[in-house]
Write a structure and sequence with these properties.
single chain, about 550 residues, globular, Sodium/glucose cotransporter, mainly alpha, 22 helices
């Protein structure tokens, strides 16, 4: 069977499974739609959280970025995994004990303010839209290559599928669909990694192969030494050397960590478990499930980079493998024969380089570059789609709940019935899918970079407000609202200026304190804390009942 035939088979089987689960778990109440009735077991919630978390950025783009950035790409690993430690220790159990449906619910009730709720709704919608655009982009890339359709058509297919099971099953359907998607994506990521590790290093465990010697067929020597040598020989920076300043790496890592702990689609998962202690257990399970992929990603990145250089550099263009031509047809690989010698010159010198490679294809193309069987290539495609669509569904639910529950039911239309609320939630998903699809077709950056912007916005808005709301009884509505507006606005304007208004100025010389747009969320969070604390000092303290609520949230339960 051809790669395309295998792909059709795997996608048909997995999508059939997802749709079947959605039909089986269709919901008729708002509690089932928003928080799955609060009956999800911790291990299932941990698996669903891992799938919700390991988006197209983790599956498709993270290893691709590491393969090009080398050591600098490690901040994605440190930030995204470290964020779950913060989430488990600082937020998850307290928010579950609070017992509402959404993050704006907590913000609005804790800060006894409709204004605070509306600010939180706005932040949740913007963050989720930025994040979901990256997922639609990832789905489009997979469909474009493996179903051989245009990227825009690929995005539309992904939109239709995720809309169906998100609308039908709500959080209940999404949860159990994500359990299935986790199994698909982790199997799809690990199987090719194991096979390639055995081929290149003789080690069945990729994490060990990453630090091992290559087989004779690959020239011998340690993998990273070989990659350093190839990189220097072709004019690229050494793979194991960092190019970013220590300050910027610190700020990016911190932004990803606190952004993780502030992401509404991750936080909402901890409202679905039966008890408070189950929230901590869910976070622990999620860390284990996530670590399987995250500890493998650096090895996959190194394998893919080595194989790419060995395969394409100085190769005759007329004799390139079929995978090269297939990816070239998508526009994600481009060859420009500048010296007209018919050979591909892949170098780090912009003046002589003839090959442009989109970083987001590295994981997807890796099995083909390594000449693995067609079924394994198709398996990776199914895994990439599972990663993109699982996260997209969670984000769409956040958007719909922010509109139907927080904006309408708890805001402007409190008289609507439960069935009307469900209708508005489903309409909100429809509109969100259309907007996300547009930006998936017209992406502003690589998948992981788009996602990093969402983390920065979450770090600068939600994380400080939630932490202060839990641990600082004196924090009032005036401080919280002022802090969220200041942190979010500063971070958003910084990103927009350097990435969209004046991208020519996007370099360390022009960055504030040498901090890149990916890391500016940390500074936004500090600004949030500073503004909130200052305003809080000069305004009335919260009512006694609110302070009692804060004390009760932190009181341990004995169950």
């Amino acid at each position: 069977m051809s790669v395309q035939s295998w792909t059709f088979l795997f996608i048909a089987l997995t999508f059939g499974l997802y749709i079947g689960i959605a039909i089986w778990s269709r919901v008729r109440s708002t509690q089932d739609f928003y928080v799955a009735g609060k009956h999800v077991p911790p291990i299932a919630n941990g698996m669903a959280t891992a799938a919700d978390w390991m988006s197209a950025a983790s599956f498709i783009s993270m290893a691709g970025l590491i393969s090009f950035l080398g050591r600098d790409g490690a901040f994605y690993l440190m930030g995204w995994t470290g964020g779950y430690v913060l989430l488990a220790l600082l937020l998850a159990p307290y928010l579950r004990k609070f017992g509402q449906f959404t993050v704006p619910d907590f913000i609005g009730d804790r800060y006894y303010s409709q204004t605070a709720r509306m600010v939180a709704v706005f932040c949740a919608i913007v963050i989720s839209f930025v994040y979901v655009c990256g997922q639609m982009q990832g789905a489009g890339i997979v469909f474009s290559r493996f179903l051989e359709v245009d990227i825009s058509h690929g995005v539309m297919i992904g939109m239709a599928i995720v809309f169906f099971y998100a609308v039908l099953g709500g959080m209940k359907g999404i949860t159990y669909t994500q359990v299935a998607q986790y199994c698909v994506l982790i199997f799809a990521f690990m199987v090719p990694a194991i096979f390639i590790s055995i081929m290149m290093t003789g080690q069945a465990i990729p994490q060990i192969g990453f630090g091992s010697q290559l087989t004779e067929a690959y020239g011998g020597g340690f993998l990273l030494d070989r990659l350093d040598g190839l990189s220097e020989q072709l004019g690229f920076p050494k793979y194991t050397d960092g190019q970013r300043s220590t300050r910027d790496v610190f700020f990016i890592t911190a932004a990803l960590m606190i952004g993780t702990a502030g992401l509404p689609h991750v936080i909402i998962r901890f409202f679905t478990v039966p008890r408070v202690r189950d929230a901590r257990r869910s976070a622990g399970y999620a860390l284990i499930f996530i670590a399987i992929l995250y500890t493998t990603a650096p090895a996959v990145a190194a394998f893919a980079r080595t194989n790419l250089i060995d395969t394409v550099n100085n190769a005759e263009y007329d004799a390139v493998p079929e995978w090269f031509s297939k990816w070239e047809a998508t526009g994600l690989i481009a060859f420009d024969d500048r010296n007209a010698d018919g050979r591909i010159q892949y170098t780090g010198d912009a003046a002589t380089n003839e090959l442009e490679v989109n970083r987001d294809i590295m994981v997807l193309a890796n099995p083909e570059i390594a000449n693995l069987p067609g079924w394994m290539v198709a398996l990776v495609a199914a895994g990439g789609l599972a990663a993109a669509l699982s996260t997209a569904a969670g984000l769409l639910l956040v958007i719909s709940s922010a509109v139907s529950h927080d904006l309408l039911k708890r805001g402007y239309m409190p008289e609507i019935t439960e069935q009307q609320e469900l209708l508005f939630a489903r309409l909100s998903i429809f509109m969100a899918v259309l907007v996300a699809g547009y930006f998936g077709i017209n992406p502003p950056a690589y998948v992981a970079q788009v996602v990093a912007f969402a983390f920065g916005l979450a770090a600068a808005s939600f994380f400080p407000a939630i932490v202060m709301g839990i641990f600082q009884r004196r924090m009032n509505r005036h401080g919280a609202v002022a802090g969220m507006i200041a942190g979010f606005s500063f971070t958003a304007l910084y990103i927009i200026y350097f990435r969209f208004i004046n991208p020519a100025a996007d370099n360390p010389e022009n960055w504030l304190f040498g901090i890149s747009p990916e890391g500016i969320g940390t500074l936004g969070a500090l600004l949030n804390l500073l503004v909130a604390s200052t305003v809080c000092r000069f305004t009335p303290e919260p009512p006694a009942e609110v302070q009692a609520l804060v004390a009760d949230i932190r009181r341990p339960e004995l169950d």
